[in-house]
Amino acid sequence: MISFNNDYSEGAHPRILEALCNTNLVQDNGYGEDQYCQQARELLQEKLGSKDVDIHFFTGGTQTNLVAISAFLRPHEAAIAAETGHIFVHETGAIEATGHKVLTVPTKDGKLTPSQIQEILDGHGDEHMVKPKLVYISNTTEVGTVYSKGELKELRGFCQENNLLLYMDGARLGSALVSEGMDLQFADLPKLFDAFYIGGTKNGALLGEALVICREDLKEDFRYHMKQKGALLAKGRVLGMQFLELFRDNLYLDLAAHANLMANKLREGCQELGVSFLVDSPSNQIFPILPNEVIQKLRAKYIFATWSKADEDRSAIRLVTSWATKEEAVYSFLEDLGNVL
Amino acid sequence: MISFNNDYSEGAHPRILEALCNTNLVQDNGYGEDQYCQQARELLQEKLGSKDVDIHFFTGGTQTNLVAISAFLRPHEAAIAAETGHIFVHETGAIEATGHKVLTVPTKDGKLTPSQIQEILDGHGDEHMVKPKLVYISNTTEVGTVYSKGELKELRGFCQENNLLLYMDGARLGSALVSEGMDLQFADLPKLFDAFYIGGTKNGALLGEALVICREDLKEDFRYHMKQKGALLAKGRVLGMQFLELFRDNLYLDLAAHANLMANKLREGCQELGVSFLVDSPSNQIFPILPNEVIQKLRAKYIFATWSKADEDRSAIRLVTSWATKEEAVYSFLEDLGNVL
Amino acid sequence: MISFNNDYSEGAHPRILEALCNTNLVQDNGYGEDQYCQQARELLQEKLGSKDVDIHFFTGGTQTNLVAISAFLRPHEAAIAAETGHIFVHETGAIEATGHKVLTVPTKDGKLTPSQIQEILDGHGDEHMVKPKLVYISNTTEVGTVYSKGELKELRGFCQENNLLLYMDGARLGSALVSEGMDLQFADLPKLFDAFYIGGTKNGALLGEALVICREDLKEDFRYHMKQKGALLAKGRVLGMQFLELFRDNLYLDLAAHANLMANKLREGCQELGVSFLVDSPSNQIFPILPNEVIQKLRAKYIFATWSKADEDRSAIRLVTSWATKEEAVYSFLEDLGNVL
Amino acid sequence: MISFNNDYSEGAHPRILEALCNTNLVQDNGYGEDQYCQQARELLQEKLGSKDVDIHFFTGGTQTNLVAISAFLRPHEAAIAAETGHIFVHETGAIEATGHKVLTVPTKDGKLTPSQIQEILDGHGDEHMVKPKLVYISNTTEVGTVYSKGELKELRGFCQENNLLLYMDGARLGSALVSEGMDLQFADLPKLFDAFYIGGTKNGALLGEALVICREDLKEDFRYHMKQKGALLAKGRVLGMQFLELFRDNLYLDLAAHANLMANKLREGCQELGVSFLVDSPSNQIFPILPNEVIQKLRAKYIFATWSKADEDRSAIRLVTSWATKEEAVYSFLEDLGNVL
């Protein structure tokens, strides 16, 4: 069986494991206060073009989101997300479990716009309703779309005018940054967000996400929140070491570029076969719409998720590629698809 | 510098890393539903002598404690712990952050007795106070002492009579099981506890704890709680693989035995130098009481924690050994101690 | 100024105050364990035709909802409500603040149907999403509509088949029970719901809601939850006494009937003037659609809420009547409306 | 039976009920935005000698404490209280249920001192433990003792130096202010506390506590927290009206003075009979130590709580007086006590 089910079906990029092995027996401090975490922080600050950001390492995305958002908000404040937002749909109410409502707007492409956020603000005026405070976006989004630099600047401006925090879930940030036509760069991020995280798990790490806190008043005592939520890893070095390796050269973006390239090949191959898509996604997730019996036949050899019903006879499926996707897997899929269509 | 600061100063035992490397590129399911987690569960069930236990893998001890305890208790129910209990002191209020009070009793040796728990029960009679429901013990305790099988049986009986859940934090379970004179074995545990965890992080793993749920009515929907608290690791295989390696043969207990042996050598060496101890601990943590100026001199070469003040001039320090502690480190410490005493 | 703003603009029905005065200096137990609360419980059990229900008194609706729902659900379980549901919109995230997500479906008339709930269930299949568990309805709804006995039976059957709890917010239960054509009676309620509350504040009491718990396994330790949430009133007698008075004879339903009668007169008067309504509501809340300049003129003399925009020039307003609404206020409003239309 | 069980066994002082009756049918805004609440706020500001305080009305003490403390603290911050503190013992873990640990120090007289708080601070240094932030005291304390103005000034200074919030539970503030030798006055309070509440329920009100927030940065959005915790009473006028009546003249302090006078008579009467006390309490709670068989005999006619065991044969009981305690009840008790001693 070949899996296009997600971007975390394999272990880590071999260089990551090698790096872990090489430093394995060095004694160092626990809880992220070791030399590797420290070096990784400095390296990331360099890439981000700012020494004024705090960086903390986590073991997963849901954990990062829930610790950050619950630390940033007061009890009566709420997050705003797209209806497809990961925190709203696929984190088992993790944000609500910390006491905060997630307000949503419907979207076709998984992206929030200032006018949609304005509608939420307009509908929340007094203490009988929660107070909208933090805008949550994911980039790439849950449906593989990306925010351009221009769109992010617009969101940023809107949030500043309205005293809202802007937070980015970067589980698939690598794929967004190297998506075709993207004008966004690492060094833009600290100016655009109050906080965001750089996803490692879905881009070559064994596990690990790097939260970057840009806004000064969100930094204080942050490690208390991590510890309280069980997110301060004893051997934090494991996380630091991986980011150090991913960012030592261009590995992080190279891995994302490979994932996108594989998705591009799948996309183009599907298009040549006359297949249409649920949404136009330039990243490592694509959503071709296929007849249900075709989907059924593909399942004999491939693992992937059915995303949504298109009509009585057809559904959109989700194909995800990663740093580890093999070109032959792509060709094999396209050939088999051609045969069963 | 040589560290006796804790048992998580190094990475993982080499066999662990080797195992991760060997299976690295195999595609498998996420979130602990892969073959390695499944095999590790079956292997642990075998060691525990029971197929009727559910096993879940976590990335750390605080995370395990908070997810388990908050899943097991209703909102008005409280945990009971020794005043030295990790959940009470060193988890930044993680249990309280899930809404539950931790009731405590003072202890000299970090261990709870039925009569102490009875006092708590006697003092909690109606709805104006929380309802004591779960007894939390750690084994080894935070001060290195251990519960014998007889003591655990007594606690178990008491808890059953009083409709209390009995939960064991096994961050250092390995060290307890191989401590001198210990009559407790893996296969005893499912009969003694409603739930407990087998600590990996402090006994050779890169990260990882295995929660074992024995009581039927605590099992339902448990993965929901893990996900909601950010504790369902995407590449769960990383955790399963490690427990598979630790329990494939006797590695887990061998590593703990080495740690205890190193602690024994430190203990005996200190005793020969006329040093006394805060508490009699037969495990991988010892607490010698030393003159403050001696402590100061040792710090030039060794890293360790000052635990408590003994009198005006002397303090107890904590020395922790692990699977990775080198014999020469022990001898070096004892020699230097002899010289400065 | 005359207010049609809500049904809690006045104090209590005079008989309520009289009852409080008459028993004022009798010494009795605190926290709802007094003779008046006990008598009120027995009286309500009699009206409900069941001795197998537990009854607890609260000071307000949001408090009742949050204590009940958080006591009934485990941490990963969620409530289902109409998008207009009070717990979703107007309780400042009170349910989420206890850790529980509220899942919603869009409705035109504020009412939930089995097929809508089925859609929610269909979309929630595994531990990456919350587990839908409790269906929250209000009767009358937030837009003044009512559930018939038949509709409730259908909901009840659906919930039982799907292992869902059915809970009714009865802030305006009186108005529902005496609405035109309603076939529902007090004695039906324990068979239809796992729990519900009988609203006092909006139907003549100074303050007070009576929560009725019908389902056996929801009853245990309920007073702990009340106390923990600050909802156990020291002089609980104040609440019991009021329900005792409201249900001593037919006062509770008489007051609701007066409110409905006043709303009927308003409705008919508006209709005679050619005014249409946002929704067809047979209870004490009506939502006429009026030109914005008419609304502006009415505000010179009347207090009421603008509910929603109908089109560029017109809005729906909400007029609420109560036990205390005077017939001359109704006539005055209609006359003035006729003049400015 | 005559009750000395607590100070909330009766309804309200007759003037309170009269005031409620007189204004009962006036239409006004809900949720504390009515004229009576507004007037009561202004009146209290006048008594407190400060227009710079925000005042909010609650229905009970536990509710006030939990809403205030959870609004004031960030998730990782903890409260410090005496081991006898109401929030630690008798509120069913209400503070922990909002996510915050309560740290305690043992006390003989229920009072906190700077040196005790310093010990807590000394023991809490990093992110592995909660961060102590708010000092909770009650005045009078749970054992009837009082803080003098000098003691409060000292606490205040200590808290300011250590960046701690100082909060007073004033459930029995009236009794404290009129206790013998007390030099504290209403107008001192805003200078001494960041926030405190003036208890109504235990001093003549039907229900009601007035929270006073003095510190600027604790005021923002406070009503959101009230609503979210179910503490914003629909007919808030009921609370405002009562405080308006209690503070229109000297009624509040007069009622407290009566309660203290009755307790004084009980105390002196006991002393004349050779009875000793658990603690020297100058307020409306006294704790005589009596032989167990005497206690048993007194129960035939009097209701009161057994507080603690003194030795094998004797226990301390708690006698509470109130504004409603009748002088003949006191004499009757003393006479009966004399007969059975």
What report would you give on this structure?
Four copies of one chain form a homotetramer. Chain A is an alpha/beta fold and about 350 residues long. Chain A has two domains: about 1-5 and about 250-340, Aspartate Aminotransferase, domain 1 (Alpha-Beta Complex); about 15-250, Aspartate Aminotransferase, domain 2 (3-Layer(aba) Sandwich). Helix content of chain A is about 40%, strand content about 20%. Chain A is built from 14 helices and 14 strands. In chain A, helix 1 (about 15-20) packs across helix 11, helix 2 (about 35-50) runs parallel beside helix 11 (about 235-250) and helix 12 (about 250-270) packs parallel to helix 14 (about 325-340). Chain A is globular and about 60 Å long. The two termini of chain A are about 20 Å apart. Chains in contact: A-B, A-C, A-D, B-C, B-D, C-D.
Q: In the CATH hierarchy, what is the class of the largest domain in chain A?
A: Alpha Beta
Give the amount of beta strand of chain A, in percent.
15-25%
In which range does the helix fraction of chain A lie? 25-40%
> How many individual helices of chain A?
14
Alpha-carbon Rg of chain A, integer: 20 Å
Q: Using the coordinates shown, work out and report the CATH topology of the largest domain in chain A.
A: Aspartate Aminotransferase, domain 2
CATH architecture of the largest domain in chain A: 3-Layer(aba) Sandwich
Oligomer: homotetramer
Shape of chain A: globular
Can you identify the CATH superfamily of the largest domain in chain A? Type I PLP-dependent aspartate aminotransferase-like (Major domain)
Q: Give the structural class of chain A.
A: alpha/beta
Name the chain pair whose interface involves the most residues: A-B, 53 and 53 residues
Task: Give start-end ranges of low-pLDDT stretches of chain A.
Answer: none
CA(first)-CA(last) distance of chain A: 20 Å
The description of the largest β-sheet of chain A is: 7 strands, mixed
Instruction: For the largest sheet of chain A, list the strands in their spatial order.
Output: 2-8-7-6-5-3-4
What pattern of helices and strands is seen along the backbone of chain A? EHHEHEHHEHEHEHHEEHHHEEEHEEEH
Domain count of chain A, please report it: 2
